């Protein structure tokens, strides 16, 4: 096979392919392509990416260089293909060489991928040697990011290192024609990790018996801890009201909706609205939790499989399809004894703590929450919670960008110096970037808990090690009390730390994901719950004229008191009373928000508002949604973040479109930098109209719908004024409030009708989970000068 | 304003402005009270100014506050206050009867604390340039042999004890100043802690740290100690004694009792082997009857204070920001 060929009409090239090219079947793809084109040479993995030398006829060599990018395997993402000529050697044959671990890493670790159709078929095939194998995977699917310990991506550098391949698996691993060629998590019943079912007071069960036992427990209403890809989940039968309610109590979860795990798309028929994009998201290789609109009345086989306690008063159901073989087996294969077809699946953690990934911790910390553990001995290297996404206007709107996406890089419009942006303190994610790529971390969580701070530190170190980014520069929020910023200060050690205003970062994030180079400013509409403003107030209803270099505050919601920080957030009736106070409207005893406020609290609160005691001025749009939610009688106490706003949106949706209330606009007093002072959006007329509607007996749904229309109208008017004054025709919608599908779709439609180019989030969350991307763009620009 | 709030901004002001200007050999860190050697004796020396409004409040007035504040600062060095000075800045037009009542209160507080006011000064400022009356007191006292109380001495393993219920002074002041009604009257805990400290030192001179959690409350005091000694502090949230009326007022106002000022409480870092005996001695003293172990000093998370919550989490307790800025809302 290695007959030397005449060298004269032959070319030889070294071809370097960078991107997500390891652990995705790239080398066998190269092997197959080269063989097909009758090329000789070899291919190897290096820390730089995939490196091939090819030799053959000139047209074949050209074709190879072209097709290596365009025909790459499904999980691969080719960032660049570079080639240089070499002297032909005349050697024949094509070989795959062992990986070489030297040099700085330039390669990209793929995200974890849901079990592919081929593997699912084998899982269910009694004749296959991996029939019912809970760890079945191949080059097209399985764990990646969460098991990588170092680069290059090779079995030795994963948590599979401790599972030597059996003879059969070795053969598959070494065979370029096999779907499992160099699939690092490859294993089988004989050589892979073991499932184990741990139940207090009973002997542990392993393998098939463990799975059967777990299914039986779930069918009987038990709550189980289930070890997944990026951490443990708590699972129970979604149709068992008692179990779901018990899980709620044990997890101290308030009314926050639980996500569901289903076996396949057909199981969702009759439960939720499913469009093409939803179907694609649900069944693709990312498999996030997709927020789906519930059908008014559930029908079909699984109509009774969603207990009321799963998602009380929620217009949506969060659903994901089984993405690991363990999940698929838990939901049962044909022939299995009957069991739950829909499972509640929620991250396993104690309130405020990060998701549990460690087995010993799971046994200890989760003991008060569960009746048993379905675990195994493949370690999880980094936590990675489920991603969450909804579809708005036919496009995905990420709510949480985590499992399945992390650490896939986001392409930047401008090259940046190596930088670490630490994100915000709520829903923290951070980012590392270099050149034109930014790697966003998985979801870290709220930075209140010591465990989360430690998880943050570990995740930064892990992402550094798998991206090779050594930051020369750091970026953090300007809030003086943000723990993320303190973390950055601690890490800076002489390197510049750039502090970025919260809403500027939000706007920069949406600009960056749309590939804007920042040469032209945009009208940034940043609506969220909270962000530290330059004047020390709590901002959150902002219209900024912004590029990466800076921003001007064109307009904002008029200030109202935020009485008692967290207390005002947890108890929306306080915000309702604060807004009525700011608007000079009466707080008479018949109003729902007044009735919701205990008498002694109301007396003190009135005094507090009058004196400004423990009150900070706020322009937060999120808090105005809270206020109106309470005013309308929809929600007075928030058991989870944004509950009042989410329920207000649900009420508006249930009601249908209505004529809007109208904000008043006026200029702020005094001079302001260069140019006119910002426009103030006064909610007073809106609130007065809400009161009038309440007095005339209007439904909460009508008030909710009219309020949504009012905010949409406000956005339209403010953008119109900004365009007139600054000649800018691009509007960017960002901030957590734009997680509200009704508002986002309404604003985008209205602005487009007015001739605006509308930018909204598609790749990173509109909430603070997307902040790091904007921070790094602003910081990189500031340092570049 | 935030610079006087006892939080991050105060610390910044001392570190960046006053510290460098006063750079001295004996006192690298400008603590609330200085330990000095003079003629062979170890002296504690401290000064404090009092600008509280209103001048009179349930449980006390600016007079006893001025005496007890300085007595307590000395006590936190282990010293029994011996002599005080008192300087008063009066606003033109302040009623003499008010000044008289304040003076009476100072005398009574000094007698109760066993300290003599030996020198003083009075100045008058124009009307509108002071809130009626400001006081400054300074004091000296002897530090007993073998006693070395400094924040830097906190060690992993130390037991953290608080001498009683927290949050009373701050809530009392706020409710009268702002005219808030909480159903029950809340009185300041203003008291001199010299006697309590003596009782503790009688168990062992080897206490590591004493601190009066005044401005910024328990949270500020614990954070300062954690930062000074580069140790971690872990407290158990539900073991911190918070009286129900304070808890209720804080819940209504949106405050955290851990950040509310105290004027008659101390927090102690005690070597584990002495903790039980020290706690018993505290409880035997009227000002320590409700003393409680609230946590421990640890080697992990140096410089940080964390609270174990009822739900099993570990909440980070920050140094308060100078103003009431919500960290997150
Ligand atoms: Fe935000
Ligand atoms: Mg003092
Ligand atoms: Zn597969
Ligand atoms: Zn095997």
Question: What kind of assembly state do the chains in view correspond to?
Answer: heterodimer
Morphology of chain A: globular
Order of helices and strands of chain B: HEEEEHEHEEEHHEHEHEHEEE
Rounded to the nearest angstrom, the distance between the terminal CA atoms of chain B is: 22 Å
- What is the terminal-to-terminal distance of chain A? 59 Å
What's the structural domain tally of chain B?
2
The amount of helix of chain A comes to 25-40%
Measured by residues with Cβ under 8 Å of the partner chain's Cβ, the largest interface is: A-B, 50 and 33 residues
Write the layout of secondary structure elements.
The complex is a heterodimer of chains A (785) and B (329).
Chain A: E1 10-20, H1 26-36, E2 40-46, E3 49-57, H2 58-70, E4 77-86, E5 94-96, H3 117-123, H4 167-174, E6 195-198, E7 205-206, H5 207-219, E8 224-227, E9 232-237, H6 241-251, E10 259-262, H7 276-283, E11 289-293, E12 316-321, H8 325-330, E13 342-347, H9 359-365, E14 372-376, E15 388-392, E16 395-400, E17 410-421, E18 431-440, H10 450-467, E19 473-477, H11 483-492, E20 497-500, H12 502-513, E21 522-532, E22 538-546, E23 551-557, E24 560-563, H13 565-570, H14 572-583, H15 592-596, H16 599-611, E25 615-618, H17 621-631, H18 643-655, E26 664-667, E27 679-682, H19 684-695, H20 700-726, E28 730-734, H21 741-753, E29 757-759, H22 771-784
Parallel strand pairs in A: 2-5, 8-14, 10-12, 11-15, 17-19, 19-20, 21-28, 23-27, 28-29
Antiparallel strand pairs in A: 1-3, 1-4, 2-3, 6-7, 6-14, 8-9, 9-13, 10-13, 11-12, 15-16, 17-18, 21-22, 22-23, 24-25, 26-27
Helix pairs in contact in A: 12-22, 14-16, 14-17, 14-19, 17-18, 18-20, 19-20, 20-21
Chain B: H1 8-22, E1 33-38, E2 41-50, E3 56-57, E4 60-61, H2 62-75, E5 80-91, H3 96-113, E6 116-125, E7 133-142, E8 159-162, H4 168-178, H5 194-203, E9 209-211, H6 217-229, E10 232-236, H7 244-253, E11 267-270, H8 272-284, E12 292-298, E13 305-308, E14 314-317
Parallel strand pairs in B: 5-6, 10-13
Antiparallel strand pairs in B: 1-2, 2-7, 3-4, 5-7, 8-11, 8-12, 9-11, 10-12, 13-14
Helix pairs in contact in B: 2-3, 5-8
Bound molecules: fe (iii) ion, magnesium ion and zinc ion (2 copies).
Fe (iii) ion is lined by residues 502, 506, 528, 531, 735-736, 768 of chain A.
């Amino acid at each position: 096979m290695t007959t030397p060929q005449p060298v004269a009409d032959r070319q030889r090239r070294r071809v370097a392919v960078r991107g997500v090219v390891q652990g995705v079947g790239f080398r066998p793809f190269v092997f197959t392509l080269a063989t097909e084109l009758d090329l000789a040479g070899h291919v190897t993995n290096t820390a730089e990416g995939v490196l091939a030398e090819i030799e053959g006829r000139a047209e074949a060599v050209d074709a190879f260089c072209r097709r290596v990018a365009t025909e790459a395997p499904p999980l691969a993402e080719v960032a660049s293909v570079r080639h240089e000529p070499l002297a032909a050697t005349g050697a024949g044959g094509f070989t795959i060489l062992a990986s070489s671990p030297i040099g700085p890493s330039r390669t990209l670790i793929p995200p974890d991928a849901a079990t592919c159709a081929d593997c699912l078929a084998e899982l269910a095939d009694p004749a296959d040697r991996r029939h019912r194998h809970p760890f079945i995977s191949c080059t097209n699917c399985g764990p990646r990011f969460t098991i990588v310990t170092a680069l290059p991506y090779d079995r030795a550098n994963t948590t599979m290192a401790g599972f030597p391949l059996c003879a059969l698996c070795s053969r598959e691993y070494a065979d370029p024609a096999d779907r499992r060629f160099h699939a690092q998590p490859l294993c089988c019943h004989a050589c892979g990790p073991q499932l184990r079912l741990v139940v207090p007071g009973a002997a542990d069960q392993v393998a098939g018996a463990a799975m059967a036992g777990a299914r039986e427990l779930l069918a009987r209403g038990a709550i189980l801890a289930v070890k997944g890809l990026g951490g443990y989940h708590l699972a129970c039968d979604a149709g068992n009201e008692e179990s779901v309610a018990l899980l709620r109590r044990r997890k101290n979860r308030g009314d926050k909706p639980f996500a569901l795990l289903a076996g396949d798309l057909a199981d969702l028929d009759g439960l939720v609205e499913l469009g093409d994009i939803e179907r694609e998201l649900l069944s693709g290789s990312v498999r996030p939790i997709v927020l789906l609109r519930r059908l008014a009345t559930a029908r079909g086989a699984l109509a009774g499989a969603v207990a009321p306690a799963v998602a009380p008063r929620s217009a949506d159901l969060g659903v994901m399809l089984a993405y690991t073989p363990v999940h698929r087996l838990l939901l049962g294969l044909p022939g299995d004894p009957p069991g739950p077809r829909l499972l509640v699946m929620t991250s396993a953690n104690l309130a405020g703590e990060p998701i549990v990934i460690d087995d010993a911790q799971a046994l200890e910390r989760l003991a008060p929450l569960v009746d048993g553990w379905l675990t195994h001995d493949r370690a999880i290297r980094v936590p990675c919670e489920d991603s969450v996404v909804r579809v708005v206007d036919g496009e995905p709107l990420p709510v949480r960008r985590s499992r399945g996406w992390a650490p896939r890089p986001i392409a930047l419009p401008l090259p940046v110096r190596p930088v670490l942006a630490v994100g915000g303190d709520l829903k923290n994610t951070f980012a590392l970037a270099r050149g034109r790529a930014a790697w966003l971390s998985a979801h870290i969580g709220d930075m209140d808990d010591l465990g989360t701070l430690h998880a943050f530190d570990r995740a930064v170190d892990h992402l550094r090690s798998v991206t090779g980014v050594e930051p020369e520069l750091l970026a953090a929020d300007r809030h003086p009390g943000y723990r993320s910023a303190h973390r950055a200060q601690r890490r800076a050690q002489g390197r510049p730390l750039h502090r970025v205003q919260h809403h500027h970062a939000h706007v920069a994030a949406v600009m960056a994901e749309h590939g804007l180079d920042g040469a032209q400013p945009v009208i940034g509409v940043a609506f969220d719950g909270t962000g530290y403003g330059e004047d020390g107030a709590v901002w959150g209803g902002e219209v900024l004229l912004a590029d990466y270099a800076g921003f001007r505050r064109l307009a904002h919601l008029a200030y109202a008191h935020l009485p008692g920080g967290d207390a005002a957030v947890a108890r929306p009736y306080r915000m309702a009373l604060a807004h009525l106070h700011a608007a000079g409207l009466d707080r008479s005893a018949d109003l729902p928000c007044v009735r919701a406020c205990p008498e002694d609290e109301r007396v003190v609160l009135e005094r507090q508002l009058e004196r400004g005691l423990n009150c900070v001025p706020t322009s937060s749009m999120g808090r105005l949604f809270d206020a109106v939610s309470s005013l309308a009688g929809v929600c007075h106490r928030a058991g989870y973040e944004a509950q009042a706003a989410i329920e207000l949106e649900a009420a508006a949706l249930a009601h249908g479109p209505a004529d809007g209330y109208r904000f008043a606009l006026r200029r702020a007093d005094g001079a302001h930098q260069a140019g006119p002072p910002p426009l103030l959006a006064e909610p007073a007329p809106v609130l007065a109209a809400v009161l009038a509607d309440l007095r005339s007996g209007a439904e909460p749904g009508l008030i909710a719908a009219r309020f949504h229309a009012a905010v949409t109208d406000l956005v339209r008017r403010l953008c119109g004024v900004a365009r007139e004054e600054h000649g800018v025709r691009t509007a960017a919608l960002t901030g957590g409030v734009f997680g509200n599908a009704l508002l986002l779709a309404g604003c985008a439609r209205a602005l487009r009708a007015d001739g605006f180019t509308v930018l909204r989030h598609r790749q990173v969350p509109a909430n603070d989970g997307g902040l790091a991307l904007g921070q790094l763009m602003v910081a990189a620009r500031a340092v570049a000068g | 304003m935030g610079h006087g709030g006892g939080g991050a901004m105060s610390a910044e002001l001392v570190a960046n402005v006053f510290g460098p200007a006063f750079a001295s050999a004996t006192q690298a860190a400008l603590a609330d009270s200085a330990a000095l050697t003079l003629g062979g004796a170890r002296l504690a020396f401290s000064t404090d100014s009092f600008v509280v409004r209103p001048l009179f409040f349930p449980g006390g007035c600016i007079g006893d506050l001025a005496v007890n504040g300085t007595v307590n600062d000395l006590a936190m060095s282990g010293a029994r206050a011996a002599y005080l000075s008192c300087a008063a800045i009066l606003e033109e037009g302040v009623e003499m009867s008010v000044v008289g009542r304040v003076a009476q209160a100072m005398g009574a507080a000094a007698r109760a604390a066993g300290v003599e006011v030996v020198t003083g000064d009075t100045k008058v400022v124009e009307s509108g340039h002071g809130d009626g009356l400001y006081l400054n007191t300074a004091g000296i006292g002897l530090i007993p042999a073998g006693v070395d109380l400094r924040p830097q001495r906190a060690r992993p393993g130390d037991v953290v004890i608080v001498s009683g219920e927290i949050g009373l002074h701050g809530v009392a002041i706020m409710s009268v100043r702002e005219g808030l009604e909480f159903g029950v009257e809340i009185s300041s805990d203003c008291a001199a802690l010299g006697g309590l400290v003596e009782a503790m030192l009688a168990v062992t001179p080897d206490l590591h740290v004493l601190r009066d959690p005044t401005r910024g409350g328990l949270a500020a005091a614990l954070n300062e100690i954690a930062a000074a000694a580069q140790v971690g502090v872990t407290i158990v949230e539900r073991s911190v004694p918070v009286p129900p009326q304070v808890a209720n007022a804080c819940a209504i106002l949106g405050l955290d009792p851990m950040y509310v000022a105290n004027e008659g409480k101390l927090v102690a870092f005690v070597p584990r082997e002495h903790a039980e005996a020290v706690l018993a001695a505290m409880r035997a003293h009227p000002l320590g009857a409700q003393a409680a172990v609230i946590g421990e000093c640890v080697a992990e998370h140096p410089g940080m204070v964390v609270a174990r919550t009822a739900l099993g989490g570990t909440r980070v307790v920050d140094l308060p920001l100078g103003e009431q800025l919500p960290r997150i809302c």
